[in-house]
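Colleagues,

For the teaching module next term, I've prepared a clean inverse folding example: a structure given as tokens, and then the sequence designed for it. I'd like students to try predicting residues themselves before seeing the answer, so please don't circulate the second half yet.
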């Protein structure tokens, strides 16, 4: 999950990168039959909580809590154990360096061979509540008939929960959710250190819960998709753990196709179908066939026209008129922009603001007197903010994890301090995960990749991900990668129909492509 333009990813942190040695202690082997069990002082070999007490803000985190539940779906009932708690990371000085909050859902009939999925959002600076209460968890947040009522949302059983076909562990990276570092250093706020930290957390959870033989998957949204590829490599290289697959939701994969890319013909062409899909949604004329026509136009006549001299004369008139009809953007705006519409789509002609997270969704313009878009984002700053407060209440009332710390749904501080790389990859514009995907496909014969996108996501358009997948070597990618698309935007899962379709496709992916219906 990105914040405004990936939160908005204006990060130039230059923190010294340290690689601490980690250890961890978590809950003991509590009986799964207990309705509720809290672990006050568990310990594992090589760790001693009593000798390394938490200090400062970390003392406010409650002990781990375990509860039993039953999820009722249309097909069956799933009895499961939920664990909400923290994993302790230690530095080489033997002191706790951070506590990582996680929520685990394990089916009671789970075997060692049942798939185990580790999920996280993006930002950098976003907590996992989006995927948790939006897509995969056993409880889902309903925003009402219009899918946009964040003032009175309702928490319901999720009939499309991925718990039906995989156990789940949702992780909040340091600085998000209830995960906190022991001090205010930047050691956790970089691409490399973040990946190593999450990989260590995954390895420790897997070992301490005897799940080393389970097929392991990573699920990441937005920057979390990029993160998943980096974590997959870190698991392989530093933890000796190979993953079976990655599911990316609305991902950033290659920054050069996202940041500033729409000022150039290729980037503009990759984004145009998402803007066209949004107009089809707003005019109630959406169809995959209509979007496919926009895709063909974008990668042919549109890109060629942008690559040449600014269109003019009769050809220019036809070009600008076609774009206006396709996107719903005022023709004069398109002419002034020279056909590059990525910066002029947000203010609609009926006095509303379209969100880059879902350009098919609009809200009244708070500043109609200015040509600039100064309004809060109607999706990111609007109804989806409810995920944070609802999750805090859910954890307290249903998971028996009563934490009085603020649940950081979106942390601007983490985003601002993020270090994007070292050496040649020293800025966000250079960040990329294509190499990691290639290496995972090459090194792990059973590894597969699924990329999910909403049609009208303009921020991380599906065209950019398709470009990456299309340019993987066929010897690696054939039959092992796929792109799926759904109505809606960056968080397409706020639509019940799209959430159902995505879960159906994920089920087939976990089954190796075979239908589980």
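(Answer key — instructors only)
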């Amino acid at each position: 999950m990105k914040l405004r333009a990936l939160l908005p990813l204006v990060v130039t942190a230059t923190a010294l990168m340290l690689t601490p040695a980690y250890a961890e202690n978590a809950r003991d082997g509590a009986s799964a039959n207990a309705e509720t069990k809290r672990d006050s002082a568990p310990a594992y070999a090589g760790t001693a909580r009593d000798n390394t007490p938490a200090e400062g803000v970390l003392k406010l985190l409650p002990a781990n809590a375990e509860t039993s539940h039953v999820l009722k779906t249309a097909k069956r009932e799933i009895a499961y154990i939920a664990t909400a708690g923290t994993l302790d990371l230690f530095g080489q000085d033997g002191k706790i360096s951070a506590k990582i909050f996680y929520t685990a859902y394990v089916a009671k009939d789970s075997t060692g061979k049942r798939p185990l999925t580790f999920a996280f959002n993006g930002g950098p600076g976003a907590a996992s509540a989006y995927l948790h209460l939006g897509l995969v968890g056993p409880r889902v947040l309903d925003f009402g008939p219009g899918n946009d009522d964040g003032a009175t949302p309702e928490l319901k059983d999720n009939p499309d929960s991925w718990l039906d076909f995989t156990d789940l562990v949702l992780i909040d990276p340091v600085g998000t959710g209830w995960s906190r570092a022991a001090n205010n250093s930047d050691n956790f706020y970089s691409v490399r250190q973040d990946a190593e930290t999450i990989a260590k957390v995954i390895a420790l959870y897997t070992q301490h819960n005897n799940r080393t033989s389970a097929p392991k998957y990573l699920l990441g949204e937005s920057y979390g998709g990029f993160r998943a590829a980096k974590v997959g490599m870190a698991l392989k290289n530093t933890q000796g753990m190979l993953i079976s697959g990655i599911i990316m939701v609305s991902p950033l994969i290659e920054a050069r196709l996202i940041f500033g890319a729409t000022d150039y013909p290729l980037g503009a062409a990759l984004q145009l179908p998402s803007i066209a899909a949004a107009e089809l949604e707003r005019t109630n004329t959406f169809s995959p066939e209509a979007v496919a026509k926009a895709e063909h136009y974008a990668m042919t006549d549109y890109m060629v026209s942008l690559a040449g001299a600014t269109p003019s004369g009769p050809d220019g008139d036809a070009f600008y008129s076609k774009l206006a009809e396709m996107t719903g953007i005022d023709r004069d705006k398109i002419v002034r922009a020279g056909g590059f519409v990525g910066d002029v789509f947000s203010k609609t002609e009926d006095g509303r603001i379209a969100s880059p997270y879902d350009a098919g969704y609009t809200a009244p313009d708070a500043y109609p007197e200015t040509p600039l878009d100064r309004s809060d984002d109607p999706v990111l700053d609007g109804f989806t903010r409810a995920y944070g407060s609802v999750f805090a209440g859910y954890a307290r009332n249903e998971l028996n994890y009563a934490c009085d710390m603020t649940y950081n749904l979106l942390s601007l501080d983490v985003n601002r301090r993020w270090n994007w790389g070292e050496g040649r990859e020293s800025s966000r514009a250079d960040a990329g995960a294509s190499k990691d995907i290639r290496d995972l496909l090459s090194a792990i014969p059973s590894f597969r990749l699924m990329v999910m996108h909403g049609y009208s996501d303009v921020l991380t358009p599906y065209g950019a991900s398709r470009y990456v997948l299309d340019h993987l070597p066929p010897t690696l990618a054939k039959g092992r990668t796929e792109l799926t698309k759904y109505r809606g935007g960056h968080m397409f899962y706020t639509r019940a129909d799209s959430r159902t379709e995505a879960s159906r496709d994920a089920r087939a992916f976990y089954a190796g492509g075979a239908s589980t219906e």
